[in-house]
Write a structure and sequence with these properties.
By secondary structure, the chain is mainly β. The chain is 11% helix and 42% strand. The strands form ten sheets. Strands 6, 7, 8, 9, 10, 11, 12, 13, 14, 18 and 19 form an eleven-stranded mixed β-sheet that branches. The chain has a six-stranded mixed β-sheet with strand order 42-41-44-45-39-46, with no helix packed on it. Strand 37 and strand 38 form a beta hairpin. This is Sec-dependent nitrous-oxide reductase.
């Protein structure tokens, strides 16, 4: 969000600084009476009504909160490696970070999109963008795990992403920075001649959710900022705000704010589909990665793709239009009926609301004001439904309550403003503390919002929480919007910097939540499906340890014969078939991470012993009363030593599978060991 901040001209920044330093804390303590606290109170043992999924901004991750309590339920790692559970460090998940730039272990994520069916959330998947290395990720909401990441080629900064269509047909995105396409070594001041934009359509497989780059539309070299797709009557259309129609390449905060209006791109994607079918595209060689978790093995498979299909508006009439929007727009939001499209100009005093019917009529009547690179510019007045006059300063994002009202955040004047979509009349305004970016109403961008709560995600929190050094907690503020006036009922800190969030009724997710992975379905090639199959195998310098975990021991727990310079792969299978019994694995000298293995799952940690000795390993998750006993030893001998590979658990160390088998057969008879 600092980028937004920098975009404001100096004068407005000053206003903003003054506004946010005011001592407004005392005001809220009055507002927050006992009844407000009660509204956000979820008693111990009770569940929240909604899940809220917040992007982590520069953390690259997603966090899941309960609403209305604001309780943090989970951090879901997506674009950044996560040593807490080994995501991105385990051999199975490393490939999730493959890109055309090599391994990229972090990113900046802004926009969450839940999958939709008929314009409503269906609770199946969660999509989020990677901003810096342009990518879109998919999280499976049955497991809250990132299962797929698709890179988008030839774009720079995938901020404008991933916006979903009403049946999850496509995720629409646009390039934030225009660049030479294909990339080439040219002087930066040849921007106008050489730099181009792309709008990307990624299809989503309706059954499995798999993403595929369907086509890209070549666009003028602007900055594509945010988008929404039509719904209901406007289904089949996309609306994208852009800035820098000046096509400047330096000091954008001044140079990209010269014109009174920028342009909103309006795309008829059904038409684009038709042109694709007719073969009106060109193909270009490129490079991008598609990383997908194989559901059977639970291993990420990574594939480099080399071809993309491009539609050029010049060869595809009636597919792309522009509409003038107020200066330096940000959010672009479509109301639940699909009729109204709100364009927020950050530097404009007013907000423009467009009518889909009027846009269609203007197109039909060719009511255009010239064109940009051959793309018709629809007459502003002809497309306009009305203007929200003087709503506040620095409008960013708008959501809807399904009762005909819109709610817009104002970054500079630090408030949420409620207004009537049809009459454009302002109905209420409530201060936020301070400088909100996005806001979210559960289902607030769908056809059926659940207009009970609103969460404003704030950028500045001075004086709201105990200090935590130079960086203060980011903050969300929960409003009750069920009445005429919005009512602030809760502050809660957030992780990273949330940009967008989406919230969904818990009953769409809770019943499908997976309790454990079925071990019978575990097709991991290094899975160990039973303690009797545990073993250690050497293959040159590589050693594979087929290890299992069940309360409260790791098997084998004594291993000898490792040598300095070996690459040791610990393939740990968690044999539990019970809810919430992960086992962990850590070994001294490991320089990557620890593992957290879910019940029924197999995960692999690479350990490269550097010196001789005996090293302890243990379970890192306090899994039972005897968790502290869940440990073992690995003996490392010098390079070139002839100490043989041997392993065991409560037995004389053995060297081969037959010995293992015999041991466990006997053990079973004695019923000492379960599996
Ligand atoms: Cu307004 Cu990146 Cu959607 Cu930040 S963005 S707030
Ligand atoms: Cu398993 Cu602690």
């Amino acid at each position: 969000m600092k980028t937004h901040y920098l975009n404001y001209v100096a004068g407005l920044s000053l206003i903003f600084l003054m506004a946010s330093c005011g001592n407004q804390g005392s005001e809220t303590s009055q507002v927050l009476g006992g009844s407000a606290a009660e509204q956000a109170y979820v008693a111990p043992g009770e569940y929240d009504e909604f899940y809220a999924f917040m992007s982590g901004g520069y953390s690259g991750q997603i966090t899941a909160y309960g609403l209305p309590s604001g309780r943090l339920l989970k951090e879901i790692p997506v674009f950044s490696k996560y040593p807490e559970n080994g995501y991105g460090y385990s051999e199975e998940t490393k490939a999730m970070f493959n890109t055309s730039y090599g391994e990229v272990p972090w990113d900046d994520s802004h926009h969450i999109e839940l999958s939709q069916k008929d314009g409503e959330f269906d609770g199946r998947w969660l999509f989020v963008n990677g901003n810096n290395t342009p990518r879109i990720a998919r999280v499976d909401l049955k497991t809250f795990e990132t299962v797929e990441i698709l890179e988008i080629p030839d774009v720079a900064g995938l901020h404008c992403a991933p916006f979903i269509t009403e049946n999850s047909e496509y995720l629409v995105s646009g390039t934030r920075f225009s660049v030479p396409i294909p990339q080439k070594d040219v002087p930066i001041d040849t921007y106008k001649k050489n730099f181009k934009g792309l709008i990307n359509y990624v299809s989503v497989d309706p059954e499995h959710g798999h993403m595929e780059l369907a086509f890209q539309i070549e666009m003028p070299g602007f900055n594509y900022d945010l988008a929404r797709n039509g719904k209901g009557k406007s289904h089949g259309w996309s609306f994208l705000t852009t800035y820098n129609s000046e096509q400047e390449h330096s000091l954008l905060e001044v140079n990209a704010s010269q014109k009174d209006k920028d342009l909103m791109a309006v795309i008829n994607w059904k038409k684009a589909e038709q042109y694709m079918k007719e073969g009106k595209f060109t193909e270009r060689q490129t490079s991008y990665f598609h990383n997908l978790m194989n559901e059977e093995t639970s291993i990420v498979e990574s594939e480099e793709k080399t071809l993309t299909k491009i539609l050029d508006p010049k060869n595809c009439p009636d597919m792309v239009y522009f509409i003038p929007v107020p200066k330096s727009p940000h959010g672009c939001d479509v109301d639940p009926t699909g009729e109204y499209i709100v364009g927020n100009g950050k530097l404009s005093a007013d907000m423009s609301v467009y009518s889909f019917d009027k846009i269609m009529k203007a197109i039909e009547e060719k009511n255009f004001d010239g064109n940009f690179d051959g793309i018709p510019i629809i007459n502003y007045e002809a497309a306009l439904d009305g203007i929200v006059k003087k709503p506040g300063l620095g409008p960013l994002h708008t959501e809807f309550d399904g009762r005909g009202n819109a709610y817009t955040t104002f970054f500079i004047s630090s408030e949420v403003v409620k207004w009537d979509v049809e009459s454009k009349e302002i109905l209420d305004r409530q201060p936020t503390f301070y400088s909100p970016g996005h806001l979210v109403i559960p289902g607030g961008e769908t056809k059926k919002p659940d207009g009970k709560y609103l969460v404003a995600m704030n950028k500045i929190t001075k004086d709201r929480y105990l200090p935590t050094g130079p960086e203060l907690a980011h903050s969300a503020q929960l409003f009750d919007i069920s009445g005429d006036k919005m009512k602030l009922i809760l502050d809660f800190p957030t992780k990273g910097e949330p940009h967008y969030a989406q919230a969904i009724s818990a009953d769409k997710i809770q019943p499908n939540s997976v309790k454990f992975y079925d071990i019978e379905q575990n097709k991991h090639p290094h899975a160990t499906l039973g303690e009797s199959k545990t073993r250690v195998e050497r293959d040159g310098d590589e050693v594979h340890v087929y290890m299992t975990a069940i309360r409260s021991h790791l098997a084998p727990d004594n291993i000898e014969g490792f040598k300095v310079g070996d690459k040791v792969y610990f393939h740990l299978t968690n044999l539990e078939q019970d809810w919430d019994v992960p086992h962990g694995f850590a070994i001294q000298g490991a320089t990557n991470a620890e593992l957290l293995v879910m019940p029924g799952q197999t995960r692999t940690l690479l350990w490269e012993p550097k010196k001789p000795g005996v090293f302890a390993f243990y379970c890192t998750d306090f899994c039972s009363a005897l968790h502290q006993e869940m440990s073992g030893y690995a003996r490392v001998s010098p390079k070139g030593s002839d100490v043989p590979i041997k392993w065991g658990l409560n037995e004389k160390l053995r060297e081969n599978e037959q010995a293992a088998h015999d041991f466990y057969e006997k053990a079973k008879q004695n019923a000492n060991i379960g599996k």
